[in-house]
Amino acid sequence: SAVISQKPSRDICQRGTSLTIQCQVDSQVTMMFWYRQQPGQSLTLIATANQGSEATYESGFVIDKFPISRPNLTFSTLTVSNMSPEDSSIYLCSVAGDREYGYTFGSGTRLTVV
Amino acid sequence: GQQLNQSPQSMFIQEGEDVSMNCTSSSIFNTWLWYKQDPGEGPVLLIALYKAGELTSNGRLTAQFGITRKDSFLNISASIPSDVGIYFCAGLGGNQFYFGTGTSLTVIP
Lengths: 114, 109
Hints:
By secondary structure, chain A is mainly beta. Chain A has strands at 4-7, 10-13, 19-25, 31-37, 43-50, 56-57, 68-72, 75-80, 89-96, 103-105, 109-113.
């Protein structure tokens, strides 16, 4: 399965600022996914990022708040913009592996907004 | 988005006991996955299921793809302290996976 490096692993940010999270994969993948996991909750898909096209956002998530870049087949970034305490969550990137391995996740970015 | 109903929400068991948890959906899925998440880490895939009725094992873990394709079960036999964590089911619907609400497992030595 793919190996994903995600950084930063955690950050504490001031409200109103922005944070960019990076996700690097050790192999070329077509589809990368960004999830949010609020405290004590399950995973919610934010958007799907395909190389060479605009990200596709799920209901409740907008590009202005969560801009995504996908410059090549091994890298993606998610920016959390104009942060508020409600944005405090774990953000995870994921890639679609082969049939046997399903989705592989990065180790996550634990964001605290104060 | 769609969310799967996972139960129980939490479990406290003695080391050596067996564990059972399940996941149900109102929709049919073609693929079911089970993940474990340790504190501060991303989810790690435990078992993948691709066919209704399929029963798959991974060491002490056994998972089944329900016949109706709307549910899945995960069993852990002879639990050990390192089984502690949160277990998530995930079902493939359309082009994305939907995740269960999670089962928090605590193993008491």
